[in-house]
């Protein structure tokens, strides 16, 4: 006996918030930053501005991917794609985080090199392009801020724009220092600052999204605790093959084989056990699991499964 249900409704509910317009606006703004900063980095020769331009290119690419992902996520599930395209948001976020990390590593390496061999950077021109970048990024932050916690995809998009805005702040500070003091290493220090902003956030996002793709247990769900709760239920004699994973943001799943006495299948207790387990996993833990699959079986069936696994 198993517990299963159609999750098409879950998918539609999870994808009900349409962030495509916000992502489209943010993409357009970031693309404009790319053009402006690319021109500025060529005119000024600034590594900080060039790094921020590369960062902005990554942002624009990431936002475009996020926009595509947000569109695909709204496609309904079918018999071939039972979860629809919900997991595309995880893949998109992982790709964006990887690009961000690559930019951060480049900025760090080149920044260290330029500390010892700084080129001449015109501070006044650098300041103008830094202010332009910051202003446009602030607009993009406002556009994306209300949806930043909706899913991995929106979170990655918001982090990219936020990091780019902080990068613009670094460019502005470097420009002011160079303009007022002539300290050319300020440009390299600004690029190292941008790298320091990028790398930790990118790494954490990569770790979280990789965990989803590897189907690790949701971080706030203790499977040992789940097992203990199920074993405390009336008529339950054992639990095995207990698994939990996350399909996409807000969509954790859990499955298990639950062993009960033979008479439970004749006196109606099997259905009661199934209902009690479903209620347990949906109410008693920090992560409410509403999509669950439990196989209720006898000791004999459980022993047969164990034997087949040993001889496989």
Task: Briefly summarize what is shown.
With about 300 residues, the protein is mainly alpha-helical. About 65% of the residues lie in helices and about 10% in strands. It is built from eleven helices and three strands.
How would you explain this protein's 3D organization?
This protein is mainly alpha-helical. The protein folds into two domains: 206 residues, Alpha-lytic protease prodomain-like, CATH 1.20.1510; 88 residues, 2-Layer Sandwich (Alpha-Beta Plaits). It is built from eleven helices and three strands. A three-stranded mixed β-sheet has the order 1-2-3. Helix 3 packs antiparallel against helix 4, helix 3 packs parallel to helix 7 and helix 4 packs parallel to helix 6. It is elongated and about 85 Å long. The N terminus is likely disordered.
Write the layout of secondary structure elements.
Blueprint (H helix, E strand, L loop, with lengths): L7 H7 L5 H25 L2 H26 L15 H29 L6 H23 L6 H30 L3 H29 L9 H10 L3 E13 L2 E10 L3 H4 L1 H15 L7 E7 L1 H12 L2
Parallel strand pairs: 2-3
Antiparallel strand pairs: 1-2
Helix pairs in contact: 2-3, 2-5, 3-4, 3-6, 3-7, 4-6, 4-7, 5-6, 6-7
